[in-house]
Design goal:
Elements lengths: L3 E5 L11 E8 L2 H9 L6 E4 L5 E2 L4 E8 L4 E6 L3 E7 L4 H11 L23 E2 L2 E2 L4 E8 L5 E4 L1 H4 L16 E11 L10 H9 L7 H15 L7 E2 L8 E3 H10 L6 E4 L2 E3 L2 H7 L6 E2 L2 E3 L7 E3 L5 H19 L8 E2 L1
Parallel strand pairs: 2-5, 3-5, 4-20
Antiparallel strand pairs: 1-2, 6-7, 7-12, 8-9, 10-11, 10-12, 13-19, 14-16, 15-16, 17-18, 18-19
Helix pairs in contact: 4-5
The chain binds uridine-diphosphate-2(N-acetylglucosaminyl) butyric acid.
């Protein structure tokens, strides 16, 4: 194991924030992880996956353990389904593209999401009408204090909108080692009803889309709205879309009749945070090295050399402004460290 000191994390977080890890190690096998945690030489451990849902505001005075466990296995094949197990360190987008080469369906709507397989269930990644929970079969996770490996079923993961047990009661307790997904091997369930996907397919005159057509549409939409982290640092949506009660919505709607809204249950309405932030005038605003993306107001960006604390301050200014105008509390989706 090669433990490095004072390592820059700039290339390990999609925001591209240049903070240092006191110690850093990349783990490619479970035995290395076991040895490392057993010898207790490093009391403070910080687990790092794809770094795509993270805003680093300070140096990390701990051993940063980068989970780099690789491998993709087709575990079981039935008539219509396959169970595919992928190591936590596999890149999510590369995995979705591999699935297309195998003609395995279920993750095509989740193309081009940054980050790794192992962190995808933690926040139940989702886009264009699909969440990972829709195809999740199980995951193996290492319990840090006991050293035991537990297999989590979908029920045990308690998936919710950008949420799971790994962000709630088991926060920081488990390290996900691999994730198994149940994918279709034929008779794919095409999900093309999300507005922008159906528009995209219509423009191309595609009536009966394949999973590859869906992936192409998603990649096209994402590329126009969301900045490529290789070019402009970002962490996707910075905030969750707030869910308010029907009563609160009625009050809001009378002041802001154009506010877009989606019914999530009898009494709950989801409001696109991007619309609120745009209304408040932040869309495309640049403050030197950081700002709000010009094509999607939900995305905060680092133009090169921003500091995490500046982006955090901007996120707080946005939260305060939204609260003042709409009386809505915006919750960060990104983990701020
Ligand atoms: N909108 C605006 N201005 C903006 C952005 C959005 O008015 O600058 C409004 C529009 O009414 C638009 C609506 O918001 O129709 C929805 O916008 P979009 O389809 O871009 O989706 P979103 O709600 O902003 C969510 C996810 C994204 C995901 C897309 C597509 C959250 C927090 N974000 O964004 O996920 O890609 O839907 O499914 O739920 C991520 O989590 O990092 C992420 C990018």
């Amino acid at each position: 194991m090669n433990i490095q000191e004072n390592k820059s994390l700039k290339s390990y977080n999609t925001f591209g924030i240049d903070v240092k890890a006191k110690y850093f190690v990349s783990i490619s096998h479970i035995t290395e992880l076991r040895d490392l945690l057993k010898n207790k030489a490093y009391p403070n451990i910080f687990i790092l996956g794809g770094g795509s849902n993270l805003l680093l505001t300070q140096d990390i005075n701990a051993l940063v353990v980068h989970i780099n466990i690789k491998g993709i296995d087709i575990c079981t094949e039935e008539n219509n389904h396959v169970i595919v197990k992928a190591g936590a360190g596999e890149n999510w987008h590369a995995f979705t593209q591999w699935c297309l080469t195998q003609d395995f369906g279920g993750v095509e709507n989740l193309s081009l999401i940054p980050g790794n397989i192992g962190t995808a269930p933690i926040q139940n990644i989702g886009a264009y009408g699909v969440e990972i929970k829709d195809v999740f079969h199980s995951c193996d996770a290492f319990h840090k204090s006991s050293g035991k490996i537990k297999t989590f079923t979908p029920k045990e993961c308690k998936f919710d909108y950008r949420n799971s047990v790994f962000k709630q009661e088991f926060k920081g307790e488990y390290i996900i080692l691999n994730v198994s997904l149940k994918l279709t091997a034929n008779n794919h369930k095409i999900k093309s009803n999300y507005g922008s996907i159906s528009n995209e397919l219509e423009a191309l005159s595609i009536d009966t889309p394949t999973i590859q057509d869906i992936a192409n549409a998603v990649i096209k939409i994402r590329s126009t709205k969301l900045p490529d982290p290789e070019k402009i640092g970002n962490s996707g949506s910075f905030f969750k879309n707030p869910v308010i009660s029907a009563l609160e919505f009625d009050a809001l709607n009378s002041n802001f009749p154009k506010i877009p809204n989606y019914k999530v249950s009898e009494n709950e309405i989801k409001i696109p945070a991007g619309w609120l932030i745009e209304y408040a005038g932040f869309k495309g605003k640049r403050f030197g090295q950081y700002g709000v993306h010009k094509n999607q107001a939900l995305v905060l960006v680092n133009y090169g050399n921003a500091e995490g604390k500046d982006i955090k301050a901007l996120s707080e200014l946005i939260q305060e402004t939204i609260h003042r105008i709409f009386n809505i509390k915006l919750e960060a989706e990104v983990n701020i460290i």
